[in-house]
Amino acid sequence: MFKSVAMLPGMASDLLNVLVDKAFRREAPSRSEALELLSDSHDVLQVVAAGSRVRQAHFGKRVKLNTIVNMKSGLCPEDCGYCSQRLGSASDVLKYSWIAPEKAAEVARQAVEAGVKRVCLVASGRGPGDRDITRIEHTIAAIKQDSPLVEVCVCLGLLADGQAERLAAAGAHAYSHNLNTSESRYAEICSTHTFADRTDTLRRATAAGLSPCSGAIFGMGETDDDIVDLATDLRALDPDSVPVNFLIPFEGTPLGGRWELTPDRCLRILALMRFYFPDVEVRLAGGREIHLRGLQPMALHLANSIFLGDYLTSEGQPGADDRQMIADAGFVIEGADEQSLPEARHDLVAIRRRGAGTNLPANA
Ligand code: SF4
Predict the structure, then answer these.
(1) Which of 70, 83, 188 to mutate to test the pocket of ligand 1 (most atoms within 8 A of CB)?
(2) Rounded Cα gap, residues 219 and 266, in angstroms
(3) Is 146 part of any domain?
(4) Which of residues 327 and 339 earns the better pLDDT score?
(5) What is the CB < 6 Å shell around ligand 1?
(6) CA distance readout (Å), 124 to 33, 78, 85, 357
(7) What family is this protein classified in (predicted)?
(8) Ligand-binding site membership of 80 (annotated)
(9) In this structure, what are the phi and psi dihedrals at residue 56, rounded to the nearest 5 degrees?
(10) In the chain, which end has fewer C-beta atoms inside a 10 angstrom radius, N or C?
């Protein structure tokens, strides 16, 4: 017996057409639309194809490369349940105190030579002290001396008064602070700080002129409703970039051994994030290799940005394999001189950070 035309996998459903149209108007999905997308009532190929229309309209075939420099690893006093660096973690990860600015600049330079456009300086801990901000100021200066065009994103935890302003003045482009999971279940994954602490820091960073970067970790027991709540709260913060992590279940952490994601589920989550953030950098982040596995190239049709190299405490796919994957899937690496975000998301007033009064050449 033949399937009806409406059921054929080659046909986009009404829901998918509605979501694409809404995304082009920068409207978020309704809750019921989002929940339907996450369910298995639509063929995943069609879900990816629909999200891809939005991705390509705003970002073409470009893939932005980012890399992480772990400035200080392990021994954190916070207790985030997903984190191998948490208080009491029995994970056998690298533990070290602050690396020197020159060492960070060397790592950054190698990454830039490999095509990376954004360097993310990350340190474990609840938040930085003022001496830590000074270290990061020196590190940004060292990186910019070698690679003036690279975007530097800083991720140091909760910010206190004046710290975001210092980072912006030092030349940081962005501040990253993930919401991680929905507000209603935040206390289940962390007891030492709150969801509100996190949104407060992101607002401080935005107010200081830093480009806000905030995303999530999926695969921690969240329901579809939690995912929709999280996407809604993230959208209210109006981030410029949204990292999408899939739990790396480190042994020695409370979430060790938790393997609840499938490639199909990851693709639906990524598509949902694309519909919530149509013209925002959706970044494929930690856990992509182990959860998407052979379907990683399909994720490039939804995300326009990926991390290259290793993560904070675990190793990623070799950079050469990532570059080959991007080329094989028909995408191109975004150049340093190309604008990442669509024009509509750009503030037309760009604060001068080159020429007189700086160490950078003037815009001659
Ligand atoms: S996520 Fe950050 S704050 Fe939480 S335990 Fe890990 S390093 Fe500490």
Answers:
(1) 83
(2) 9
(3) yes
(4) 327
(5) 76, 78, 80, 83, 85-86, 124, 157
(6) 37, 9, 7, 33
(7) Belongs to the radical SAM superfamily. Biotin synthase family.
(8) yes
(9) -70, -30
(10) N
What's the 108 CA to ligand 1 centre distance in angstroms? 22
Is residue 153 part of an annotated ligand binding site?
A: yes
Percent of the chain with pLDDT over 70: 91
pLDDT for position 10: 47
From 82, 94, 124, 189, the mutation candidate for ligand 1 (largest count of ligand atoms within 8 A of CB) is 124
Total domain count for the chain? 1
Distinct helix (H) and strand (E) counts, the chain: 13, 10
Q: Which residues pair with 72 in a beta bridge?
A: 123
In tens, the pLDDT along 75-105 reads 899 999 999 999 889 988 999 999 999 999 9
Please return the burial class of 322, using the count of CB atoms within 10 Å of its CB with bins 0-12, 13-18 and 19+.
Answer: buried
Longest distance between any two alpha carbons in the chain, whole Å:
75
Residue 87 has a pLDDT of 87
Question: Using CA atoms, how far apart are residues 152 and 146, in angstroms rounded to an integer?
Answer: 12
Range of the domain at 96: 53-329
User: To the nearest whole number, what is the mean pLDDT of the chain?
Assistant: 92
Q: Is residue 361 part of a domain?
A: no
User: Which CATH number do you get for residue 311?
Assistant: 3.20.20.70
Query: What φ, ψ does residue 132 adopt, rounded to 5°?
Result: -65, -40
Q: How many Cβ atoms are within 10 Å of 46's Cβ, its own excluded?
A: 18
On whether residue 364 sits in a domain, the answer given is no
Most confident by average pLDDT, 189-193, 308-312, 314-318: 189-193
Residue 12 belongs to some domain of the structure: no
**Interhelix angle 224-236/263-276, nearest 10 degrees:** 30
Measured distance CA(217)–CA(269) in Å, rounded: 11
> Which candidate, 234, 322, 300, places its Cα nearest to that of 48?
300
